[in-house]
Structures are given as C-alpha cells and as structure tokens.
Amino acid sequence: MFSRRALVIALAPISFFTACSSSHSQSSSTLEVYAASSLATPFSYAGLAYEKAHPGVKVEFNLGSSSDLARFVQEGAPADVFASADIANMDKVESKDLLDSQAVIFATNYLEIIVEKGNPLDISSLEDLTNPDLIFVTANPDVPIGRYTAEVLKKAGVSMTPDSFESNVKGIMLKVASGEADAGIVYHSEVVASDGQVEGVQIPTEFNIVAKYPIGIIKNSTNKKQAQGFVDFLLSPEGQALLTQYGFGIP
Amino acid sequence: MSRSRGHRQKLPWPIVLIAAVATAFFLAPFVGLMWRTPWSKFTDIVTHREIRDALWLSIETSLITSMICCIFGVPLAWLLARVEFPGRRFIRALTTLSMVLPPVVGGIALLFTFGRRGLIGQYLDRWFGIRLPFTMTAVVMAQCFVAMPFLVLTVEAALRQFDSRYDGVARTLGGSRWYVFRRVTLPSIRPSLFAGFVLAWARALGEFGATITFAGNLPGTTQTMPLATYAALDSNPESALILSLVMIAIAFTILIVLRDRWLGRTDQGVPL
C-alpha cells in the first residue's frame, strides 16, 4: 500500500508535465508567426485585422532578430510562418528544406542614420560618423541590420570602429533614443515607428541598400491553411497599405 | 559520518526518486550541449583571440564584482541582521529586488541612472567627464547590481543564526568593535561569507541581460563570455557550444574545488 502511494507521489510531477504539453498542442487554430522585430508594429495590426476577418483564429507573434528566429525554426520550433528581415536568414531555413513552398518578398526597407532628438551633433552624412569622439552603435554582423550597416559604410568608403554591437535593432534604438549613443544606423521603418524619439538622417540612395523581407510557410506547420491566409493578407492591398503606413516599401 | 550511514538503511525512496528526477533535469541539458559539441575544433576555437579576450574579461570583471560585493555587502548584511531601525524591511526588500527583476530591466534602469543623460550620469559627465556606458566599469556595475543580493542574503542569514552574545562577551573582555567584528563575528560566519562570495561570483560570471543593455557589447572591452557566446550563436554556433562548455567547466571546477577546501564543515550540517 505504502509503495503504491509513494509511486503516485513520485510520478505526479511527470503526469503534470504531460498534461501541460498535451493541452498545449490541442489549440490548432492558433497561428504562430515568427517575425523579425522590425516588423513588430505593422504585424501586430495585421494580426488584429486577420483575427477580425477570421473568427476563431488567434495570431501569435514571436518577435526577435531574424537570425535567432531562423535558428529556432531550424531546431524545430512550432512556427507556422517565418518573416525574415533579410534573404540570408530565410536561405538558412530554406536550405534545410524546412519551407512548404518558396518564400516570397512582401516588403522592402532602406536604411537611415539615427541621432538623438534635435541632432545635437549636427550629423548630416555618413562621413560625420567617423568623428572619433562620437559614440556609434551597430549590431552583430550576423544580425541583418549589422550586415546592412557594414555594407552601407563600405559603399560610402567610411571606416570606423563601432562602440558596441547590440543584439538587435531595438538595442540600437534604445541606446540612441536614451542619448547614450550619438548615432546608429537602422531601418527607415524604425524611425517611423519611434514616433519622434529619434531623428532620422537620410543616407544617399547611391550608398543605401534595399532590404528585402521574405515570408515563408514552414513545412511542419499544423495550420497551413491559415498560414497561407495570413501571407495572402500581407500581400493584399490592405496588408500592403498597412506596411506602407509604417514606413515599409512595397516590392 | 556514522549518522548519515544510519540514515541510509531506511532511504525514503520516493524522495530519492524525485531528487533523481531533479538531478536529471539539471544534468540532461549539459549532456545535450556536449552531445552537439564539435570536439575536434575545441583548441582552434578556445585559442581564438576574441574568445581569449572575452574569457579574460569575464574572469577579471566577475572577481572584481564579487570583491566589491563583499566590501559593500557585508556591512549591509550586518546592519540588516543586527540593528533594528525604521525601514529595515524596506531596505532589505530594496537591496534584493534585483534578484527578481529581469536583468534587461535592471540594465535599462542603470542606463537611465548612470548613463550619459541619466539621473546621476549627466552630472558625472558634465562635472567630471565620466561616461560609464560602453566601459568595463559599466560591466562591473551591471554585475554588482544583480550579484550583490546573493551575498547579502547569505551573510545576513548567517549573522542571524550566529549567537550575538559571543560578540557581547568579546566586547566585555575589552575587544574594540572593529576587533570583535574581525576576530569573532567574521570567522564564525566564514563558510557563509565564502558561500555568498561564490554565489555572487557565479551570478556575475553568467550575467548577460544587464550587461548588454547597460555596457553594450564590444569585443575586448565589454564583451564578456556570455555576450561572446550569444554573438557566436549567429556567426558560428559551434564555437558558441564550446564557449558554453568552457564556462561550465570553469564554474564547475571552482565550485567543487573551493567548496571542498574552504567549506569542509558545511557537509556536516553548518547551514549555508
């Protein structure tokens, strides 16, 4: 008698864990969208609009740097849709044959220098960033924004040592918006989304890049119909208008 | 020793089973790491310059941090344990708050306080030309912020358990306050002081969120091992695995070796 009760006590935590995991997998009307953090604002509105048009569907976002998300997907995370801020990270997923069909470009973006509100150092060009007293932050070269920034600086023939390699765009935004860094380079859409917390300085088109945002449906998705629906929505005039509103370009 | 052997004869096996599950839960992730580790590239990666810099920076900053934690934490713990004063509970809660705070939030709080435009930082910049973010000092500050509570809590608990009448006796025998603290109080709580030191050091060594938010991430200056590991996850996942193992090995060795050497008594029931 004692030993049976003891067994129940010992196994109770295990049954608790299995109960948790099984209840989680039942909700198949939840759409898991893994999206680059620069897409946060338009995607949250797109999610709301999509939920409204498709009652019973819940759109959940996992926002992060594209490289983090690509790694999650490669490790088998339960994503239905993956939207990357660059093609390289989508390629990582595609090369492992994890996409249901080829990814499509649904948005574009370009880069802008950001400075503190009021531009106290009067920065107007990429050359101004070479001032050694200036604190310039960027991101790791494997995060899309870090690589794009390096590309732009190279095109303009500007070389300098950044003061910090943040882990994503939000890190760059925080450091510049709080005045800790003097300048950084981020997506134009981030400047739009910042609502005046930072000031954007144009980068001439000849040095600028066009960031292409691909989106793809994950092969192991348990909810491909809704996943396709969400992708179609983003490509629809309504979805594209939403993206333009938040500073993205249309492919 | 004989006491524990007596216990072993009637082991409560459900407890052992549950404890075994808990142990397996800690063990499995390490095995998982080692399972994926490309051992053949070990020396290549560990001797890489950026990695050596990160390793050295981590060891340096975490040791400075734990020493600072002792210098400031022990008096604080003593005050909390021994002196009745209004607001004591408030101070205790305040000084341990960072344990429950997400480290990134701690980092932002530090940035808004000691940053160039921060509450205090703006005066440091204006009056002394001191800018803390993106420096090694900022790394140590971030680590202190999250690590000190571990030392304070451990030492305070020990001071509470240590019979303060010994202090009183030593004082009546003519010892000065400082002499008594140094020769009676401190030796009696030595195991806990050391445990607190090690806990704070371990927390500092693994610190990530507050560091990257407050101090940024620049190889050689503010990029500690956890930051280097995170950065490597993108560029070179294999080196990230090896870096993690190096950190685990260092921490594990130090915890085991030093614990046996300094804390031999704790296994016989001295409370940690």
> What is the number of independent domains of chain B?
2
**For the terminal residues of chain A, how far apart are their CA atoms?**
71 Å
Tally of separate helices of chain A: 9
Greatest contact between two chains: A-B, 28 and 27 residues
Overall pLDDT level of chain A: 88
Helix fraction of chain B, binned, reads over 70%
Query: Given the C-alpha coordinates, what overall shape of chain B results?
Result: globular
Which regions of chain A have little confidence, pLDDT < 50, spanning 5+ residues? 18-27
Oligomerization status of the protein chains? heterodimer
The gyration radius over C-alpha positions of chain A equals: 22 Å
Q: Which stretches of chain B are poorly predicted, pLDDT < 50 over at least 5 residues?
A: 1-6, 265-272
- Global outline of chain A: elongated
For the record, what CATH class of the largest domain in chain B applies?
Mainly Alpha
Order of helices and strands of chain A: HEHEHEHEEEHEHEHEEHH
Largest sheet of chain B: none
In short:
Chain A is 41% helix and 21% strand.
Walk me through this protein's architecture.
The complex is a heterodimer of chains A (251) and B (272). Chain A has 251 residues and is an alpha/beta fold. Chain A has 2 domains: 28-108 and 212-245, D-Maltodextrin-Binding Protein, domain 2 (3-Layer(aba) Sandwich); 111-202, Periplasmic binding protein-like II (D-Maltodextrin-Binding Protein, domain 2, 3-Layer(aba) Sandwich). Chain A is 41% helix and 21% strand. Chain A contains 9 helices and 10 strands. Chain A is elongated, with a radius of gyration of 22 Å. Chain B has 2 domains: 1-36; 42-268, MetI-like fold (Orthogonal Bundle), CATH 1.10.3720.10. Chain B has helices spanning 2-8, 13-36, 42-46, 49-82, 88-96, 103-114, 121-128, 136-161, 165-172, 177-188, 190-206, 209-214, 225-235, 237-262. Chain B is 75% helix and 0% strand. Classes of the chains: A alpha/beta (251), B mainly alpha (272). Chains A and B meet through helix 1, helix 3, strand 7 and helix 6 of A and helix 2, helix 6 and helix 13 of B.
